[in-house]
Design brief:
It is a single chain. The protein contains seven helices and no strands. With 173 residues, it is mostly helical. The longest helix is centred in the middle third of the chain and has 35 residues.
């Protein structure tokens, strides 16, 4: 037994006011409900145009409207989640240095590298092992094959050298 598919649009038209009330109640917004009713119409019209048979057009239109509302709420929920995540990301401070600061930092690093290269090898190694690698004076002494007191002298010598180097550069500016 063949059903008349034109009944979908007729059912939609008969249910139009009920659909608006239903979707306004589901979404809490008459504007959103009107948009969803239009989307429901397009879905129902596509089914009718495809020539699909529907046993109960009224129930089909109501179910389609409900599904459209559910899809919309899911989409809105995902959008709110994305918006909330964007807000969290925007609230995280940007710790990257400003371009001018980065240029100055690179220049200071280049100058420090020059100062370190001007040091004798053991004081330079002692300072780098202590400040960069975090080794203790005892560990550095073992690594360099010297006493702990010599490591202390090497580090002090390297620090004095770097301070003098920086002071000299500050005077030139």
């Amino acid at each position: 037994m063949r059903r008349d598919t034109r009944g979908l649009i007729a059912s939609f038209q008969d249910l139009y006011d009920d659909l608006l009330r239903l979707l306004t109640w589901r979404t809490g917004s008459s504007d959103t409900a009107a948009d969803l009713v239009h989307e429901t119409y397009f879905r129902v019209a596509a089914v009718q145009e495809a020539g699909r048979e529907v046993e109960n057009p009224r129930a089909y239109v109501l179910r389609t409207a409900t599904n459209v509302a559910i899809d919309s709420m899911r989409r809105d929920g995902r959008q709110r989640t994305v918006d909330a995540e964007d807000a969290v990301v925007e609230a995280v401070p940007d710790l990257a240095p400003q371009p001018e600061e980065a240029v100055l930092a690179r220049e200071r690093l280049r100058l420090l590298d020059e100062a370190l290269r001007a040091l004798p090898p053991k004081p330079r190694q002692a300072l780098l092992l202590n400040r960069v690698e975090g080794l203790t004076q005892a560990e550095i002494a073992v690594r360099l094959g010297v006493s702990e007191s010599m490591v202390i002298k090497y580090i002090a010598q390297a620090l004095r050298h770097c301070r003098a180097w920086r002071s000299q550069l500050d005077d030139e500016e």
